[in-house]
Amino acid sequence: MRPPRPPRDAGDKPTRPKSPSATARDARRAAQHAQRSGKPQAPAAAAAAAEAKPARRGAGRMARPAVAAKPTVPVAPGEGERIAKLLARAGVASRREIERMIAERRIAIGDVPVETPATILKSLSGVTVDGQPVARPEPTRLFRFHKPTGVLTAERDPKGRPTIYDRLPRDLPRVMPVGRLDLNTEGLLLLTTDGGLKRQLELPATGVERTYRARVFGEISQAMLEDLIEGVEIDGVRYGSIDANLERRTGRNAWVEMRLREGKNREVRRVLEHLGLQVSRLIRTSYGPFKLADIPVGQIDEVLQHDLVNFRKTLK
């Protein structure tokens, strides 16, 4: 039999040396405790905590070679105007269409594609669209067009339906519609060569009045129409003040005139349908000071420069 082992004193208990990771963990805990308690951390502990921080992932990897930046068109703040505004004024397209063309890299200055519609230029010298130089801006022109029913206010239609451009004269310069008339609405549609004027006329803040005549079926009274002067909310959409008047009635059919200063999608139809009326015909008779008058359906007439210049002076 083995002799019994002598009793070990508590102070003689062997201690296992701590691993480096355990030492680092203790240092981090001490640093966190000191930070929470507000006590200053010992220099040695601070150094240990700093050394204990894990190395950033990927720190030992080789740096990738720098990629040469693509040439860009310089932007000079405070000088000239935005290229989108200049191109719209030159009649290239509307600002929204120009922004899309820039995203498609179709617009360039020299050989360098324009990267942003916020590019500032003093002129369109050297600017190309689809490789073709932009012509110098000509005086703004405005036309009155009597839009028929059954044609779209669009340049093209994926379904092949006729558009207003199918009805316009071939020798007409490139024009853009001011606002829209839906497929079954007829009457005055303004067309302009100036994208800036188009935008100005469309903005509700400008406050240009539009007038419509609607033939409706159903029960209607002047009192019901007068309530629209305060505006109305339909399906979560707020429509502003509308000045509406009952012109004449024949049985349950009536003609209503409506004046408004904004052009939300199908606004007149939705408001009248909200009143329980069926709209069988809708005609826009004026836009600002410009009247449909006696222009035949499908025909176009140019606004005199004198009248256009005077009107632009009144815009906000």
UniProtKB/TrEMBL annotation:
Entries under CDD domains matching the protein: S4
Tree of life domain: Bacteria
The reaction(s) this protein catalyses: a uridine in RNA = a pseudouridine in RNA
Leading EC class: isomerase
SMART domains hit by this protein: S4
Single GO BP term: enzyme-directed rRNA pseudouridine synthesis
Coiled-coil annotated spans: none
Region (Disordered): 1-74
Domain RNA-binding S4, residue spans: 81-140
InterPro entries, sorted: PsdUridine_s_RsuA/RluB/E/F_cat, PsdUridine_synth_cat_dom_sf, PsdUridine_synth_RsuA/RluA, PsdUridine_synth_RsuA/RluB/E/F, PsdUridine_synth_RsuA/RluB_CS, RsuA_PseudoU_synthase, S4_RNA-bd, S4_RNA-bd_sf
Keywords from the UniProt entry: Isomerase, RNA-binding
Known EC number: 5.4.99.-
Bias kind Low complexity: ranges: 32-52, 60-74
Biased composition annotated in UniProt, kind: Basic and acidic residues: 1-15
GO MF terms, alphabetically ordered: RNA binding; rRNA pseudouridine synthase activity
RNA-binding keyword on record: yes
One Pfam family this sequence matches: S4
Family that this chain belongs to: Belongs to the pseudouridine synthase RsuA family.
Name under which the protein is recorded: Pseudouridine synthase
